[in-house]
Amino acid sequence: MKHRGHSRKENLIAILTGTFIVAQGVFFLQQAHLLTGGTTGLALLLTHFVDFSFGQLYFVMNIPFYIMAWCRMNRRFALSSICCGALVSVITDNLHHFVEISQFDPVYCAVMGGMLMGLGMLILFRHNTSLGGFNVLVLYLQEKFGVSAGKLQMGIDISILLCSYVLMTPTILMLSLLGAVMLNLVLAMNHKPGRYNDGKAMAKTAD
Description:
Layout: H1 8-31, H2 38-46, H3 54-72, H4 75-94, H5 106-126, H6 134-145, H7 149-163, H8 170-190
Helix pairs in contact: 1-4, 1-5, 2-3, 3-4, 3-6, 5-8, 6-7, 7-8
Keywords: Cell membrane, Membrane, Transmembrane, Transmembrane helix
InterPro entries: UPF0750_membrane (IPR051461), YitT (IPR003740)
Protein name: YitT family protein
């Protein structure tokens, strides 16, 4: 979605770049069978129990948040978020056709997966869009009440992971928490209200 300081072309490139980086992060987590917070983590978890791909589950689980964005926020923000969510779903489901990891370290996958996802989400946030899911909620609360998106997202992610404790081994849980912390540290340190001068994170009213 276009806002002051970014051209339409820049926003399009940012969306393609951000979603690709996020997909790389999810791919790293998948290789080590790790989880994360938000709808991404829930989708990764459900892939172990149902015969649907991550991308399919991820997009469907985000639909209620897309509706929230459409009703409560700028509609262009909602449409761009839908596009971002769809791109992450498609890219992640098809990365195995282009990349194969024969050897990996779970700690490395947790750190790199979390950092890449955080970096990709940061790019999207800076261009006034998101992946949907709890991103929509935390951005809305940040805009309305000034709450740090990164800190709020971290709290939600850690809560979801802790609730998944009965379904994970302690090692997987700790590494998944590490990845979630890395993701949200990137957001907490780099995405704060009023830090930038090129416009607000989102419009206050619907088109």
